[in-house]
Amino acid sequence: MSTAKETAGGEMPPWAEVTPDAARRLLVAAVEAFAERGYHATTTRDIAGRAGMSPAALYIHFKTKEELLHRISRIGHERALDVLRTAARGEGNATERLADAVSSFVRWHAGARTTARVVQYELDSLGPAARAEIIALRRQVDAEVRGIIEDGVASGEFDVPDVRGTTLAVLSLCIDVARWFNVNGTRTPDEVGALYADLVLRMVGASK
């Protein structure tokens, strides 16, 4: 499980700019441990051991295990949001932008699958304040996709009676890729992204 090397379309992993090196190693180790064992079953000793550090060294950079999860969740959600924003605010009509948004979002969840599983499925392990911050980021993610679909409906490109419900369905479809994607499977992240983009365009009744 090589979290440090996870990429989507060749992009750098989300921890690449985290400093110092020890803090980055702890984040990578925590992602791997949380993905493998779950947040509650993972101890700070597990994380420190994976990072090649003593348990005491962990507390120099992170006060609690929850702070590690919060940092992972925030960085991961900000990266996912950036992927969607880039596509949503790009050139092209709503059909082209939705296809780009879905394929990019899926590629991120497939290419960074270990990280994405923790980011997307450990929300309830956060305390109230941290959870509220991540939920606010999720609402922004929702707004980016909903905005493209609304543009498509307004332009006549899409036939969507329930924009909010369809937005939820699209996001759920993309996010679930992190749960099942297998790097040794028959499809690459790019291929899954292209497949899902086509499926979503069919879902919204896009007039190609």
TrEMBL record:
SUPFAM superfamilies the record matches: Homeodomain-like, Tetracyclin repressor-like, C-terminal domain
DNA-binding region: 43-62
Gene3D superfamilies associated with the record: Tetracycline Repressor, domain 2
Keyword Kinase: no
PROSITE patterns with a match to the protein in the record: HTH_TETR_2 (PS50977)
Superkingdom, natural source: Bacteria
Entry keyword set: DNA-binding
HTH tetR-type domain sequence ranges: 20-80
Name of protein: TetR/AcrR family transcriptional regulator
Organism from which the protein derives: Streptomyces ureilyticus
